[in-house]
Fold this sequence. Notes:
mainly beta; four-stranded antiparallel beta sheet; rod-shaped
Amino acid sequence: TRVMTCGDTLTYCVTITPSGGTVVYEWTIVGGTITTPPGASCVTVKAGTATEFTLHLKATRNNALCVIECERSVPVGSPKAEIYAINATRVLSCGDTATYCATVTPSTGTITYEWTITGGAIETSPSQSCVRVRADGGSFTLHLKVARNNALCIAEADKTVPIDAPSCAVTPFD
């Protein structure tokens, strides 16, 4: 079974047994949106921002002589964002640059990126999946905010990177 996250779409169908007769379908949803006409045996559903949606069907058969009702609750997950370094083993010093990228799960839908930094500088566009940053001090913290499906779903991640600060020692000179 596919895990749905906010903004995802999936089609649901009903099978009524025994078959036969004239059936009228009436679908409703709580926690999402039905994006196709609700009077067919199948509907396409768009998950909302809640942790689940409930799809309800009321079907009548033979001029409302028989009424059948059923429903299905579907959990809705949130997207996840992670930050990773292109060269993860490299130790950064003050003034060095490094590239960091985002992994968004699931990666479907329209994704927008918004990077910010404290203790350094972003040298490339902050609206791309990867950014090049410059280390300025003892550490920097990258913050990533990603939005899926026209900002319906938001995920955030932070990564703090220590900087190998230069050091010195003053000694007497004879």
